Amino acid sequence: MDVPAFYTSYSMTVATEEIRKKINSMIWKLRGYGVVIDPASIELGTDIEKEHESVVFAYTVCRDLRWDVKKVDAVVALHPYNDMPPLSTGMMDELGHARAYRKDRYLVMPVGGGSPFTRDNYVPANHVFKTDKELFNFFENKRRPTLKPKYQHFQKAFAKWQDNKLKGE
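RESULT FIELD:
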């Protein structure tokens, strides 16, 4: 069986450290279900000279929309805010492109999600979840074909390798 590939989409601009921890936790769990592309892990940096900013922005949009989103099986959008900031324009654009590419789309959003422009347009209504627990329950019990977290041994091996690297071993 092929290993499913997911692209995670979320706001990088407004995410606080607390929200970032929630997002990272969801991404880590998602890795148990397949390959995960996390755009934050391939960022070009924040010290971009003003004269090169438009080139870097254009490259990022092209890479995310025309390469990453186009090549994966599904886009998982994460918006774990209890106080609703605006939805990320990048996240919504990624979901729109995923729809155009006929990719599965999922959204974790504790508050809101009732807009007709979100449900049944960007994301099918039955793919909008209030918690990541609901998302993973859907993967394991309702999605066809179902997904099980069968790649956890790779997660553990990677975590061990990463810890050793961070310790300088």
